[in-house]
Design brief:
Elements (H helix, E strand, L loop, with lengths): L2 H19 L15 E3 L6 E3 L4 E2 L1 E5 L3 H4 L2 H13 L4 E5 L15 E2 L2 E5 L15 H14 L3 E5 L4 H4 L6 H14 L6 E9 L5 H14 L5 E5 L3 E2 L1 H4 L8 E4 L19 H7 L8 E3 L21 H13 L4 E4 L2 H4 L16 H4 L3 H5 L1 H8 L7 E2 L14 E5 L3 E6 L5 E4 L7 E7 L6 E8 L3 E4 L11 E7 L1
Parallel strand pairs: 4-5, 4-14, 5-8, 8-9, 9-10, 12-13
Antiparallel strand pairs: 1-2, 2-3, 6-7, 11-12, 15-16, 16-17, 17-22, 18-21, 19-20, 19-22
Helix pairs in contact: 3-4, 6-7, 9-10
Length: 468
């Protein structure tokens, strides 16, 4: 073999290996990488690798990889950055026949163990730019906008309905993902995907173990079925770094299951934080803004910005490490001509400006304006805790306390739970982030606080007490 033939042979072999492995720029060290996210020392919250508090404020963009072109990807992530989101939850594969907006199939013969990759990633060459290159592009855009992408490898129905994914296929696919995104610092893994954790556990454990073993610095959790929690089946799994629950989309009266927590999503948090070892937890799918109560009956009322705020403050004040918001149109990236799901009629690029989406940043700003990592839930602050929409929830640090009401209900508080003889009291408005001073209050005995406005659902307020 002369030198010229040998050179050409080497190039061909390199080309084939590149195509088979799915090599791309993602396998190289990415520029301007975001700091990795890890669990805090007290095991309750997230921090960056440089030890700064990280409050998970997620948006649900499930179908972004498949339905958004490059221009739309830029628009979406720029908007979410402007609104304060720092995590977006996305499906890598909604179905095993997944095809993106450019007509690129994700898999060969709908086999998850055989991702369809091409050499190169030149968008202007249709023979180079593939499904996985578009995922890479999305991750780059997210990184530029300071956003972490929490990716579901394969949506649960592909495993639970029809056995379309075997354990062996799942392991090979997870290894492909782990290798391709090994050096991505803005990748988080959501194993499962709206599925029962006690079913097909061999497959979910195979995916989780493969991802975690190969990339131990990337966080992994399990996104479960409605009204269930990752902790119910995987809390002690070595691959699960934090818990995620789906409080779901039903009203109190729409739920026939007596054993779950219904709309009281704070109860998931309270339970998870009693488990050992301690792990962070958060609501990864509460009721979406603009979706019908119970999902399927489009004649039902729709959840509003009031409801997504309530779920956020209830769970975070109970001790959650963050919160994920969702909107009916945005989660399905609804475009003109799409077949709507769950009665949606609004285009995604309009729905990104829904009221709730703009209000989520205020919970993040509030939590990070106080010493974050010392924060604990403390219901002993409240004498009249209440039930359902009357429920009051409290969290505190050494020199501050925060108490939330969803409907402007009077608060009767046990003082003296934070430092100091006196406290500065004020009302914080979750709808616009504005603070209204009350005055200086003696920090002892029992005190009553009446929020502004009438008692009605959606007239929510946070009482702030600060040591003077």
């Amino acid at each position: 073999m002369n030198l010229k033939i040998k050179y050409l042979y080497t190039i061909c072999i390199s080309f084939l290996l590149t195509a088979q492995s799915g090599y791309s720029q993602s396998a190289e060290k990415t520029k301007d990488a975001l700091p990795r996210i890890k669990v805090s020392k007290n095991q309750h919250y997230f921090i960056t690798e440089d030890e700064k508090p990280f409050f998970w404020l997620g948006d649900t963009g499930w179908l972004a990889f498949g339905k958004l072109d490059r221009e739309s990807i830029n628009k979406y992530f720029q908007d979410r950055k402007a609104k304060g989101f720092n995590v977006v939850q996305v499906m890598v594969l909604h179905n095993i026949n997944a095809v993106n907006v450019y007509g690129d199939a994700a898999l060969i013969n709908e086999d998850v163990s055989k991702p369809l990759t091409t050499a190169g990633n030149n968008f202007n060459n249709k023979d180079e730019y593939d499904y996985w290159d578009h995922v890479d592009f999305t991750l780059d855009v997210a990184q530029k906008n300071g956003i972490y992408v929490a990716m579901v490898p394969v949506w649960g129905t592909n495993v639970s309905k029809g056995n379309k994914v075997s354990k062996e296929q799942a392991e090979k696919y997870a290894k492909f993902l782990a290798d391709r995104y090994k050096n991505r610092t803005n990748v988080i893994w959501l194993n499962g995907g709206d599925t029962h954790g006690n079913e097909f556990m061999d497959i979910w454990n195979a995916i989780g173990n493969t991802l975690k073993t190969n990339n131990p610095d990337q966080l992994v959790t399990f996104h479960p079925f409605g009204r269930t929690d990752s902790s119910e089946n995987y809390h002690n799994a070595s691959w699960l770094d934090f818990n995620m629950f789906q409080s779901g989309h039903r009203r109190y009266d729409q739920d026939s299951i007596k054993t779950n927590f219904k709309e009281d999503n704070y109860k998931f948090v309270q339970r998870d934080l009693t488990l050992k070892p301690t792990k962070p937890t958060l609501d990864g799918e509460p009721s979406y803004e603009g979706i019908p109560h119970g999902l399927h009956d489009t004649l039902q009322p729709k959840w509003t910005e009031n409801d997504v705020r309530r779920y956020g403050y209830w769970s975070v004040f109970a001790g959650a490490a963050g919160y994920t918001y969702g909107h009916n149109a945005v989660m399905q990236m609804f475009r003109k001509g799409d077949k709507p799901a769950y009665g949606n009629k609004e285009l995604w690029n309009s729905a990104i400006n829904a009221p709730g989406a703009g209000q989520m940043v205020y919970i993040k700003k509030l939590m990070l304006s106080f010493p974050y990592l010392e924060r604990i839930p403390d219901q002993t602050l409240i004498t009249n805790q209440g039930e359902k929409y009357d429920y009051l929830v409290a969290t505190k640090g050494e020199k501050y306390a925060l108490i939330y009401t969803y409907n402007g209900r009077k608060m009767i508080l046990n003082m003296g739970k934070i430092a100091g003889d006196k406290v500065n009291a004020s009302w914080y408005n979750p709808r616009n982030g504005k603070e209204t001073k009350i005055g200086i209050i003696e920090n002892k005995g029992t005190k009553e606080f009446q929020p502004l406005g009438d008692k009605k659902d959606g007239n929510d307020w946070v009482l702030i007490l600060r040591t003077k």
